[in-house]
Structure prediction request, 982 residues.
Amino acid sequence: MKLLTRTEEFILLAVWKLQDDAYSIPIQEKLNEITDKDWSLGGIYMPLERLEKRGYLKSTLSESTPERGGRHKRIYSLTPAGKEALRYAYEVQQTIWSGVPQLMFGLG
Amino acid sequence: MSERPPKLAEKILSKLQYDDVWKTTLGDFEEYYTYLKEKEGFSSANIWYWKQVLHYAPSKITHKIYWSVSMFKNYLKISFRTLIKQKSYSFINIIGLGIGLTAFFLISLFVSYEFNYDSFHENGDRTYRIIAQQPDNEYLGSNWYAITPTAMAATLKEDFPDVEYATYFTNTRTVLRTSTDAFSEWGVAADGDFFDIFTYVWYAGNQETALVDPYSIILTQSMAQKLFGDENPINRTIEQVYPNGKITEKTVTGVVANPPENSHFDFSFIANDQTTPYYNYNLNEWSNTNVYTFVQVRDGINEEDFAAKLDGFADTYISASEYYQDDLDALPNHALQPLEEIHLSSSNLNFNPSSTGDIKFVRMFAIVAVIILLIACVNYMNLSTARALTRGKEVGVRKVIGAYKSNLIMQFLSEAVIVSFISIIAAILAVFVLLPFFGDLINRDLNTAALMSWQFWTFVIAIGLVVGVVSGSYPAFYLSGQKPITVLKGNLKSGSGNTFFRNTLVIGQFSVTVILLISAIVVFEQLNFLRTTDTGLKREQIVSIPNNDPELWDRFETVKTELIKQSGIEMVTASQANPIYMSSRTSGTVWEGQEEGEELPIYVSPVHFDFQEMFGIDLVSGTPFSKDTFKETEASYIVNEAAIHELGWGSDDAIGKPFSVWGNDGYIVGVAEDFNFLSLDQPIAPLVLMLAPQYDSRYLLVKTNGENIQETMSKIEETLKTFSPGYPFSFSFLDESYENMYRDDIRMGELFNYFSIFALIIASLGLFGLATYIAERRTKEIGIRKVLGANLFQILTLLNKDFLKLVVVSFLIAGPIGWYLASTWLEDFAFRIELGPMVFIVAGVLTILVALFTVSYKSLRTGLANPVESLKNE
Prediction:
């Protein structure tokens, strides 16, 4: 299985956490919150699209709100494959971090 | 302050892409915009929003172009495949459109040439000719004249500050000779600012000063070549011999290029008018009306304002002149005629310097061109919609895959445009080949140089697009409007509404074609009638030899005796007027019983003995001119029937009555039967043949016996060289000259015929395509019918009758319209053919035969095919 990139991993996690409200703007906010950086909207469209193409995400159109000028939202949700990819990423993470000397954190 | 993002930016973004994903993205933008506005304020939100435009626009636009191009590539590919797959249809479409476009381009080039006369003069757009209407003086059917008084040009320049330059000129034939050579040439005698107004290319001499000296002459390049060969003509002297025999010595002061063909007057030389020896008037006269007056107004002067200022300006001058007869109604009205419009707007003017164009013909041809092109476009429409079924599957599949209607419309339009451009390539090649012949046919200097201008190519491309869009529009909307489910199920009939539309188009095509054919036949018949009708003047075997040598005419009797001695010469006479066009007219007549102020406008032709006999003019009463009764001191007259009818005399009473023309008192000796002495669009008017010794002739007329013409001609030339050395010898056969009078008309008539045939061919091609298609579709049906016992005749009837019905209906529509147009056109001729049923029968039978033939070709093949062939494929 192909390993997720960091950005992809974050986005998938954000979508998972946001549940029913997972569309671009909240995703962006979530990412800002997690990483303490300013994510541009453009910067998350591409990975979203890619993830959807790979089958990790699916999207549905939902109702609109006035502040969107009457336009639909595209709500993302994780597919089983998406969850599997996250699980795999987590495992790899665990594996690679295990055995790193405790000392290093002390230095930080 | 608005809550929404900047309108323009939003609009741009929303145009970039149409799908749902993009719509939600725009929603995101707006939401974020609202959020930003609250957090960081209005302006930074706006800046952010605009940034998105800058960020997305380039990639989306390239994307769009990329896909349009690849779609277009696909359209191209499909178009070419369709074209190649259905060779015969493609061939019919391309040939039909090609012929139509060829005709259209040829006519367009002609029309554009006609509209570009005199456009080479630098300030042509503010140059005008003054023309005059003489209310009391109708001549050859019009009282408008191209000529004005000699004094006018100078007066205009003096009286009107608006006038920058003014000039006048006459256009006459004189003899130019060196010690060795003599040529009779058309030239211009000009005064005033001739070269400031008319622009020519100068090879030698100074434009400012060349015409200043009264004894100067400027030659065209070819005239200089004729007179001096390769020697330098500047400052050489030549003799100019005028029609009245006066001789003036001239010095060559300049050489200009030959005037362009698209000039309304032609010349071999330009001389100063001051030295033209006039008969009996001087140059600063208002009574001397025989020159063309031109003015060039200052830059920025408006034509209408200037014309308003000119109104009536000449009245005082003219009424002060000694020839003016105190009749206010008789004062001429003057009008401005823009130089560049002279060629096409002068056909109703008398005394044009050379033959003019005819706006009516130009219009007629322009209409014919558009009609032919439309007929060709309709072919394309008909064939494409008729074949909707074969394309139906493709349309269905495209729709199912997701093509919008607009995509399909684009596809079929591009197909039509592709076909139209292929036809254009063929048409341009044809135009290249045909243009010189076409130019000859219409007597215009059309050459392929005209094809090299960017204007022409812009026009060609525009026409290609228009033709493509016009012919592709209906098929595009029709085909793209099909429901995919019906087409894919194979239920698409060549629908009945569609058939109706197609039939209407075919009827339209054939109606127009039949109208063209009827008109062409009528024009042809009428012109043929003009050419061959008996005018009452026998012109055969008569040679006309123009000569201006007064000494020759002084010794005419001797010359006559000398000539008559030669074998091959039957009769010799002479006349002052061109015997096939006696256009000189006067009101200076006196007759018995004339009342005070009564006038008889009469055409007059001074002739010699034997004139009336030579031309076979029959006398109703009286005797021919006879030497036995002729007295040197009095004139003899032969008048025509129209004249005595006008005077209220009987033909026998007229004989012996005193009569006088131009002050030559004499008697009427004979009354001639009416004959046509002008062209046949004029009714026969009063005419008098005058025999008076003091009038020099201009034409020596010799009747030959028709054998050994060359030998006879060289004998005549020899004789004339001895009597009239220093004068050029030229001759023409009167029957040929007569035909030449109608040459332009006949040319136009011929062209009209060709183009009607073109129309018929194109319309038939369309019918052929339809017939082929129908025959193909009904192959199985025919097979079954044959198996069940139908014979060939029944099958032919079955296949042909639908088409024939259409053609017959077209004929019924076109007949009355054609009749109306033809009779309107004929009304202009004083002598015309009867519009009998033959014309309609010929046009109808021709159309039906051609239609029957084209349709039957395919039907016959289907009908003759072995039914096994068509049925075995199930």
